[in-house]
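Lab manual, section 2.4: Encoding a predicted structure.

Procedure: take the sequence of the chain (163 residues), apply the prediction step described in section 2.3, and record the output as structure tokens. A sample record is shown.
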Amino acid sequence: MSDKIPTKEYNLEINILGLRELESCGFMPVKKPYIRFRIKSLLPPEKAQAVTNVDTDPNAPGPNPNINTTLTFSVQLPQEDLYCPSLGCDVFDYVYSGLSQPLIGTMNILIGEIKAEHEAEVRETRQNMDEIIAQLEKFASRTKLDLEMHVSSRSQIQGISKP
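Recorded output:
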């Protein structure tokens, strides 16, 4: 099936700022939460075996940690938004020096929607740039015509004033 769907390589950059208002599922408060990005969720099963998921570092403590990390990677995504997968993410708590890592929550990043919005922005920017270029070309041709007329009228004036 994946051979029949046209794909294109995309460079993804995700800026992770932090997590807010996390609640523990157990008796203890949230200690050191971190996010696991399931990169495999973006790929077909036969290609996902060679890829590893990515975790942020469990450094910032508490239910409102600032993570401030950038995740950058390249991935083959379907060109049609209908077939574009979402990036699955899990939030875990790093408790007892990693002996226990309970799941706090999950979320999905809708890559297809983000890709569609970005492509629409690019199309709009290109259209605006084409309009600006057309206006500049029109202005440049008008300025060239004005300059030619000015030079022509000046040479006529000089020709009349010479005896």
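Check your result against the sample. The chain has a mean pLDDT of 87.
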